[in-house]
Amino acid sequence: MDISVIIPTYNAQEYLPTLLDNLSKQTIDFELIIIDSSSSDNSLEIAKKYTKNIITIPQTEFDHGATRSKAAKIASGEIIIFLTQDALPVSSKELENLVQVLRDNPEVAAVYGRQLPSKNATLFGKHLREFNYSNKSHILEFKDREKLGIKTAFLSDSFSAYKKEALEAVGYFKAGTIVGEDMHIVARMLIAGYKKAYCANAKVYHSHNYTISQEFARYFDTGVFHTCESWLIEKFGKAEGEGKKYIKSEFNYLLQNRAYLQIPNFIVRNGAKLIGYKLGKNYKKLPKWLCKKLSMHKSWWDRWA
Fold this sequence. Notes:
The chain is α/β, with parallel strands linked by helices. It contains 14 helices and 9 strands. The protein has helices at 16-24, 43-48, 64-74, 94-104, 123-132, 145-148, 164-170, 181-191, 212-228, 231-236, 242-256, 263-281, 288-294, 299-303; strands spanning 3-9, 31-36, 54-56, 79-83, 88-89, 108-116, 138-140, 159-163, 195-205. Helix 2 links the parallel strand 2 (31-36) and strand 3. The radius of gyration is 19 Å and the shape is globular. The relative contact order is 0.14.
């Protein structure tokens, strides 16, 4: 099977030299496509050393779904791997391990890999990765929603792979999602009868050290997404108890690491997430200027709200 790797970039010169050098040492051959949102740094110059397949779009046109669809439609591969510019494969076999799941399982349309915390990750960043990305692989289908709720459709495009024929079958990514283009398309794939996989032995380093205000904004956007795409909750249901499970796990993680001084941070951080999510769910009751101020993806409000 032919493989294409797509990386959306914007001012990525901090990451690209290491990432692209890493990709050049992977154990499988692939077509590399960079889709750049008019970077103002040296991203394009760096990318040109590794590929001729570079698409440039105006920064104002970047869209989580539409940008990925644009590159995927051009890609020649039967399997399409998506990476973000700050995700770094752990070894030279990670891409091979990821696509092997699609090769071995005809019914699986999409797979995502394990994300390990970066070296500079805070305890909160480390815990998030350990909670969401276990060391056990699995394959899920639509009926699993009865047990797992909306988490059945969870997938991260920071490190994922799709069969192009499945992307085409469901109409590619939806344009205009503020976040969650990956969950949106996987949900549609599951409803269409495909399966989704998680591959724990395909690994990248990828984590964020979000501030409390960034956590608030991220959860505000998640709330907006769940309101805009309310059918997801209707079709899959809520991840019952998942929030409480996460908070309990994070608190225990801090205790295990004797990070007692971080407990006030823990309380404020999770309070900010909850308030942000609730406000996002009710964004239609708020003035647009305030929504834009509270959001992490501010340009979305000018194009789609």
